[in-house]
Amino acid sequence: MKEFFGIGGYTREAEGYMSWQHLTFVTSLMIIMVALAIFFGLRYKGADAKTKNKVLIISAIAIDAFEIFKIIIESIDTPDFWQRSLPLFLCSIQLITIPLAAFTKGRLKEASLDFVFIFGLLGAVLGTYAAGQNYASYPVLSFTNVVSGITHSISGFCALYIVISGLAKTSMKKKNIWITFSILGGFSVAALIANLALDYNYMFLMRGDGTPYDLVYNMVNGNAVLYPILVIALFLIYIVAFYGVYYLITGRLAKKKA
């Protein structure tokens, strides 16, 4: 257990990013994530909004509980670990938006549902398959990677559940797009401030760190101004594209039913 939690440092050598151990572990998580989303999504598809929301409430409590537990354990060896655990990565924003989607009402709830739907599955994939910074540094079956895999999977689960259960039909409104932009913009500004204050790399706005963002970083030769602007621009383009594809698909489905 001491070795699993990494107390005193891991003595096992990391199997490596994109090793068969890494791919097997994260693929297992993705299979479980999709299976549970389909099961609960179909089970509550015909239920009322309050019943559907119970799944989000449990998910919100679970994802934050796992993250808080991770911070407590990691802080045993590294007291300043909290500085690297602020919810300012694109994936970890879900630590706030999933609870907002579960516990709030009105347009804030709708916009939070949109944010979870739009970024949840993307975060799940990037935070597992593309997490080069984690799997290159820690053993696959280590506390850090296991908890990270679980929290990212919960984000992906919520995104799939929202669309399968029909919750997306109550949100994904054009009038709320600016709120989704504002959520992302606010966290991006906070991440930039935290990066400068703590010398860290929240939302990968300073460098790629072994993730696909390295492609953008290398494209601009690490330019300290252009790189974060392009990363944020890609986020915004992704939001617009996601809404566009969603409206296109739902519009065609509506025409077929008519």
Features:
single chain, 258 residues, mainly alpha, 10 helices, 68% helix
Task: Give an overview in words.
The structure is a single chain. The protein has helices at 2-5, 20-43, 49-77, 94-103, 106-126, 132-135, 143-164, 177-198, 213-219, 226-257. With 258 residues, it is mostly helical. Helices cover 68% and strands 0% of the residues. Helix 3 (49-77) packs antiparallel against helix 7 (143-164), helix 5 crosses helix 7 and helix 5 crosses helix 8 (177-198).
Summarize, please.
The chain is an all-alpha fold. Helix content is 68%, strand content 0%.
What profile does the largest beta sheet have?
A: none
State the end-to-end distance: 59 Å
| Share of residues in strands | under 5%
Whole-angstrom Rg: 19 Å
Q: DSSP helix count?
A: 10
Give the arrangement of secondary structure elements.
Blueprint: H1 2-5, H2 20-43, H3 49-77, H4 94-103, H5 106-126, H6 132-135, H7 143-164, H8 177-198, H9 213-219, H10 226-257
